[in-house]
Amino acid sequence: MFSIFGKIKDFIIATLILAVPIIYIFGRSSGKASEKSKILKDDLQAKEQATEFYKSMANHEEDTSVDSRAGLTKRLRDTGL
């Protein structure tokens, strides 16, 4: 009777020993893919922010209110550019 439980226990242990490296490899590959997608999203967001900044700078390029210190201060307080 004890030998049947011992064989079952040995079979479960052997299955786990064989399954752990396979699970590790699959987890590592899916983790690598998710990190790559996070990096790509972050790069895209940074490029979008840079594009918006340069668009905003282009809109204010012809602004002549920065001829004086008061005009520059007002513009910086209003728009930050």
Notes on the protein architecture:
The protein is built from two helices and no strands. It has 81 residues and is mostly helical. The protein has a domain at 1-52. The longest helix is centred in the middle third of the chain and has 58 residues, at 2-59. The chain is rod-shaped, with a radius of gyration of 31 Å.
Number of strands: 0
The major beta sheet can be summarized as: none
- Parts with pLDDT < 50 across at least 5 consecutive residues: none
Structural class: mainly alpha
Helix content: over 70%
Succession of helices and strands: HH
The oligomerization state is single chain
CA gyration radius, whole angstroms: 31 Å
Strand content: under 5%
Form type: rod-shaped
Distance between the termini: 83 Å
Protein traits:
rod-shaped; 84% helix; 0% strand; mainly alpha; 2 helices; 81 residues
Summarize the structure.
By secondary structure, the protein is mainly α. Helix content is 84%, strand content 0%.
Question: What topology does this entry show?
Answer:
Elements lengths: L1 H58 L9 H10 L3
